């Protein structure tokens, strides 16, 4: 199956029965209509697959791919990317929401700014106890300056040109966490990034685990080596790692 569309939205799901319908409905309500959605079920054991299939039966532009066993986020996203044919690829997670003009705003910006390869947006970040409006660094210069300290995008807000993701060879399936951060670090010296300073998604934020903090460190160090910035990049990575551990420790004491 090859899914052809101007824009393909890719989503990997595993046991998302409580939120999947809200995420998909937020895409159905988009002002921009020339999109297709590929949902990759990555080994769900609840009703996620049933819900996804119900959408694919009802809407011709919604498709489902199934992994026979859990293969991980990077593998599943690559599967969707390389079984599609589109000019643009957008990310979406099953526990997030896209505001009605998200896709339209991003498509419009990429059409008007041909040198930009990846574009993200601001977000209403929802945690267990509060909601916060947050923005990532705006232009490529600012992103380049801060990328070794902070992930430059809300992953679920990203839209990218196919030429970018194909040049990068997709997500690195060896990354069990921080797959998106690794991708941005690999591409930042060759491609242009930008963040719209508009809130266009509702982003569900979870507390970082020790494993995710460790993989953040690993990705930073490996990409510092790739970019010939081992000493400076690794120093920043260790500082960010220590800060992450401190925050996690303080939260656990509350």
List keywords for this structure.
254 residues; alpha/beta; nine-stranded mixed β-sheet; two-stranded parallel sheet; 41% helix; globular
Structure description:
This protein has 254 residues and is α/β, with parallel strands linked by helices. The chain folds into two domains: 3-206, Spore Coat Polysaccharide Biosynthesis Protein SpsA, Chain A, CATH 3.90.550; 208-254. The protein has helices at residues 20-28, 48-58, 73-81, 102-112, 140-146, 162-167, 179-187, 210-226, 230-253, and strands spanning 3-4, 7-13, 35-41, 62-66, 84-85, 88-91, 97-98, 118-126, 131-134, 159-161, 193-204. The strands form two sheets. Strands 2, 3, 4, 6, 7, 8, 9, 10 and 11 form a nine-stranded mixed sheet that branches. The chain has a two-stranded parallel sheet with strand order 1-5. The longest helix is centred in the last third of the chain and has 24 residues, at 230-253. Mean pLDDT is 88; it is low at 239-250.
The CATH class of the largest domain, by name, is: Alpha Beta
Strand content: 15-25%
Total strand count, please? 11
Low-confidence stretches: 239-250
Number of discrete domains: 2
The outline comes out as globular
Determine Rg (CA atoms, Å).
18 Å
Specify the structural class: alpha/beta
Average pLDDT, all residues: 88
Which superfamily, in CATH terms, is the homologous superfamily of the largest domain? Spore Coat Polysaccharide Biosynthesis Protein SpsA, Chain A
- Separate helix tally: 9
Oligomer: single chain
Cα(first) to Cα(last) distance is 50 Å
CATH topology of the largest domain: Spore Coat Polysaccharide Biosynthesis Protein SpsA, Chain A
Largest sheet: 9 strands, mixed
